[in-house]
UniProtKB/TrEMBL annotation:
This is Bilirubin oxidase. InterPro entries: Cu-oxidase-like_N, Cu-oxidase_2nd, Cu-oxidase_C, Cu-oxidase_fam, Cupredoxin. Residues 45-84, 99-175, 206-305, 401-507 form the Plastocyanin-like domain. Signal peptide: none annotated. GO terms for molecular function: copper ion binding; oxidoreductase activity. It comes from the Bacteria. Belongs to the multicopper oxidase family.
């Protein structure tokens, strides 16, 4: 089905208002429901899931240090919108078909409020998972200003729940960011970019089987999912009208498996000012920005000299990344029309310096961990991705001590790039280095074949998701804390995460 581009205006998700607020706590209630929404004017309204009646969900904006409590409630129907594969861990027939649990991605939060994949709950909390501890989550937001997002994290069906619509922005603000005089208010726009496919009747298409179907299964997990249309804030190929001035965009790759390589067809620079974990030391002007699933980039684009121009935000990333098929590239994201009159003189700035970024020293690390990214096949002949050769249910092997610093070597033995996300903490990317995969598989020895490559300019800040490329060792450094308890780390390609590429870890005293 061919849909016209740039016929619908970009929607901006509303900012959620708290139910109550006093000097101690801010209280939100967020309800998940099924409803119909127009994703493109040439499509029938599409049945989706969302938070507070919208897909994507409303933006939650909080202050650094603000104590926020959120009651996430599930009012979804008992039947899933999409086909569930009951052979996947956590999604067997012994659990309810529709379950949810919410993770604020990138948040430093107590384990009971982190959205552990087995802390799920059903409609009205009638049934809960084995790790469910509380109905009301607490977020202390002891973090600098940054771009986070909230999304579903249920074991075995995360890919389906997020694809159905369960995602939204969670922005932390602080005084320092306000002093920088960045574009703000209507000139600051969050963009959640996702890919989807549709059936003729306008309903969401999600494959029931991989390209080589598994005959003995009605529904089988697919290795990755790539949709043939791009949606921004829940609209297919929208347009945005802007004034000839600077705008701040929060870019979020909210896709299941698709990477993006964003660039503007006007050839102008995109100024990145922030990574997953907040502002960088100084902005970098770039022609293109690569975002893996779950990564964010905080950017400023200046339209001052582009009055009357239509600028297209393009994508050049193959799927799967980095060596996928050219025919899987969907090269258009949205159109920006510099057609609005300038309402007032633009006094906002692209600052030359934002904040110090103290580099963590490897000497401070008390432990190194060598962790592999592996590909195997299961009993049905399907590919299955593992972390360190272990599935979700294997005994826990990572027990970092609270307050300790570790260096993790992510040793990618597969053909795909994997965005690796670690809950609770932010890390710094140290470097990447090519190595001989065959020798490693035989002898478990890293034999480097190339020089150390420093992190990409766009990664020189605090991160919670890192792209681990094939045939490379990616090294990251982090300090664990301030909380102790049970968390997870995983690949953020949702089809991988849902089928074993996720591991629990425990921060101990």
């Amino acid at each position: 089905m061919i849909l016209s581009k740039f016929v619908n205006e970009l929607p901006i998700p509303p900012v959620l208002k708290p139910r109550r607020k006093d000097q101690f706590h801010t209280y939100y209630k967020v309800n998940m429901t099924e409803f119909k929404q127009s994703l493109h004017s040439e499509l029938n309204d599409t049945k989706v899931w969302g938070y507070e009646g919208s897909y994507p969900g409303p933006t939650i904006e909080v202050e650094s240090g603000e104590k926020v409590v959120i009651k996430w409630t599930n009012n979804l129907p008992a039947k899933h919108l999409l086909s569930v594969d009951y052979t996947v861990h956590g999604a067997h027939l012994d659990v309810p078909e529709v379950r949810t649990v919410v993770h604020v991605h990138g948040a430093s939060v107590e384990p009971e409020s982190d959205g552990y994949p087995e802390a799920w709950f059903t409609r009205g909390f009638k049934q809960v998972g084995p790790y469910f501890r509380k109905k009301v989550y607490q977020y202390d937001n002891n973090m600098q200003a940054c771009t986070l997002w909230y999304h579903d994290h249920t074991l075995g069906i995360t890919r389906l729940n997020i694809y159905a619509g369960l995602a939204g922005f969670y922005l932390i603000r602080d005084h320092r960011e306000r002093l920088l005089n960045l574009p703000c208010g209507q000139y600051e726009i969050p963009l959640i970019i996702q890919d989807k496919s549709f059936n003729e009747d306008g309903s969401l298409f999600y494959p029931r089987q991989p390209e080589k179907p598994v005959p003995q299964l009605e529904t089988s997990i697919v290795p990755e999912f790539f949709g043939d249309t791009i949606l921004v804030n829940g609209k297919v190929w929208p347009f945005l009208n802007v004034e000839p001035r600077k705008y701040r965009f929060r870019l979020l790759n909210g896709s299941n498996s698709r990477f993006y390589r964003f660039k503007l067809d006007s050839g102008q620079l995109i100024y990145q000012i922030g990574t997953d974990g907040g502002l960088m030391e100084y902005p970098i002007g770039m022609k293109e920005i690569i975002l893996a699933p779950a990564e964010r980039a905080d950017v400023i684009i200046d339209f001052t000299n582009f009055e009357g121009k239509n600028i297209i935000l393009k994508n050049g990333a193959p799927a799967p990344f980095p060596d996928g098929e050219p025919e899987n590239v969907v090269d258009t994201v949205m159109e920006i029309r510099v057609t609005l009159p300038l309402l007032s003189i633009d006094t906002s700035v692209i600052p030359s310096y934002m904040k110090p970024f103290p580099k963590m020293s490897e000497q401070s690390a008390s432990k190194e961990r060598h962790l592999t990214l592996d590909e195997k096949t299961d009993k049905y002949g399907r590919e299955i991705m593992l972390l360190d050769g272990k599935g979700w249910g294997a005994p826990i092997t990572e027990y970092p001590k609270v307050g300790s610093t570790e260096v993790w070597y992510l040793i990618n033995l597969t053909d795909d790039s994997h965005p690796i996300h670690i809950h609770l903490i932010h890390f710094q990317v140290l470097d990447r280095r090519a190595f001989n995969v065959e020798i490693y598989k035989k002898e478990r020895v890293i034999q480097y074949t190339g020089p150390l490559m420093p992190p990409e300019p766009q990664e020189r800040g605090w991160k919670d998701t890192v792209n681990a490329n094939p045939n490379e060792v990616t090294r990251i450094i982090m300090t664990f804390g301030p909380y102790t308890g049970l968390y997870v780390w995983h690949c953020h390609m949702l089809e991988h995460e849902d089928y074993e590429m996720m591991r629990p870890y425990i921060v101990i005293r």
